[in-house]
Amino acid sequence: METLQQLLKNIELSTAQIFGALTVIPLVRSVTGSADYWTLDEAMAHNWVTITEVSEAGAVPELLCSNTSDRSVLLLDGEEVEGAKQNRIFNLTLLVPAHTNLNIPVSCVERGRWRYRSRTFKTAKHTYHASGRAKKIQQVTRALKQQGRPYADQHQIWAEVDEHLEVLECDSPTSAMADLYAQELPKLADYTAAFQAITNQVGAIFALNGQIWGLELFDFPSTFAQLLPKLLPSYALEVRGVPDPTPLAPQAVTDFLQNLSQADAETFPALAEGLDIRLSSPTVVGSALVAKERVIHVSAFPNTLATETY
Question: A Pfam family for this UniProt protein (predicted)?
Answer without folding.
Answer: ARPP-1
